[in-house]
Amino acid sequence: MSGLDAIVVGAGPNGLAAAVTLARAGLAVRVYERASQAGGGARTQELTQPGFWHDGCSAVHPLALASPFFRAFELSRRIELLTPEVSFAHPLPGRAGVAYRDIDRTAAELGRDGRAYRRLFAPLAARSLEIAQFTGSNLVGIPRHPLTAALFALRTAEQGTPLWNARFSDETAPAMITGVSAHAIVHQPSLVGAGAGLALQAHAHAGGWPIPRGGSQAIVDAMIADIVAHGGEVITDHEVTSLRQLPAARATVMDVTPRALLRWAGHDLPPRYRRALQAFRYGNAAAKVDFALSGPVPWSDPRVAQAGTVHLGGTRRDIARAENEVAHGRHATEPYVLVSQPSVLDDTRAPGDAQTLWTYTHVPAGSTVDQREAIVRTIERAAPGFRDLIIDSRSVTAAQLPDENPNYIDGDISAGAATLRQLVRRPVVSTDPWRTPLPGVYLCGASTSPGPGVHGLSGWYAARSALRATFGIRKPPSLARE
Q1: Residue 463, CA distances (Å) to 7, 29, 411, 458 in order
Q2: Distance between CA atoms of residues 96 and 8, nearest Å
Q3: Contact 422/414 with Cβ under 8 angstroms?
Q4: pLDDT score recorded for residue 1
Q5: What is the pLDDT of residues 419-456, one digit of tens each?
Q6: Cα–Cα distance between 334 and 314 in angstroms, integer?
Q7: How far apart are CA 71 and CA 167, in angstroms?
Q8: Predicted local confidence at residue 138, as pLDDT
Q9: What is the Cα–Cα distance from 393 to 279, expressed in whole angstroms?
Q10: Average pLDDT, the chain
């Protein structure tokens, strides 16, 4: 391709979303990716044994249904999304908490806390798409749905402070809520964790938490197919180390961290913007273990076997203790463990009756501690005999994660600390934080607003900013399936 209009650096979900949008506007687009396989945190690979397909980072995708970008892209018409009746389960001694898509069924099984649980989540589930609009913005300016934003803020203030147990009298419902909010890798309770958790849990009772058939790579492949269909190209095995090495183009969109932008173009940036990028902080980390299993996990509560996602770590108090140990730079004595079991729904992920299992736990940034045994031990408590099913496993420490994705600084899969300040200042406070001071240069990815997750939004917003500011195109192109 000659006569490039736009270059995208990084073929993660946000970089690809930017390329989709630019190509749909009729521009000549090229994407460069350092790895041999496009997708970033949404790659699917044979990580243990042949025939066992594992998701590299993101495995379960509520935002595949709720993200404004993916809704405009009509992703659900392009790939097969397998949505379990049980969005997630939370094993506890004796009995698990089970979050069905049906909130009434969920509440009915929670006994005396069922009514309180329903009153907390039913209004959020009914407004889940409006919440996705709000949480998928850069939080600067007036929200599109102010009443929904106010409702969400009030519930976040409740669940993100020491008031979080006020409406509950039992252990199960609070543990379920904290199991979801712990996805954020932050101190518990916290407003950031509560906001992230309540949004995810609203989706659990609205569209559900789907798993793409064939793995997260299906999302990536759908975007690449659209880019190519509209004249773009994606080049892998091509590492970019400086903006000056790129061919001439009117716009460059980078799916990288502020640290990478500083390394590639720091001397060209105005001092104030450079200082803002230098002040951007990265958070604590994940350690990941993938398992190839000879059969299904033998959960003590059989309902857990129906869940696409499982949270382990005990009660609300137990999970808070574990996450707060990590927040203080220590490894948790009894860690919180997040589990995805895609083979419950997707028979393409492992041969015969075998299964793949995706797990991670939280650790201090840069940790070199292998968490395989800690994770196996935690699963064994809720599923005695699990260890006997393991055919093979692959463990990656936090310190090793950047080798797989340089955006995961010291193993921070969120590519930036999840703090209130950095929700608004990601990486700068602006109504257009994706546009850098360099002419024609834009920044996207999890380090930019609206933050982490496979939603494509920061890439979409960066591309729309480029269309307006660089190309003078005011009306965003249609992304609908043709």
Answers
A1: 11, 11, 27, 8
A2: 45
A3: no
A4: 52
A5: 999 989 999 999 999 999 999 999 999 999 999 999 99
A6: 9
A7: 35
A8: 84
A9: 38
A10: 97
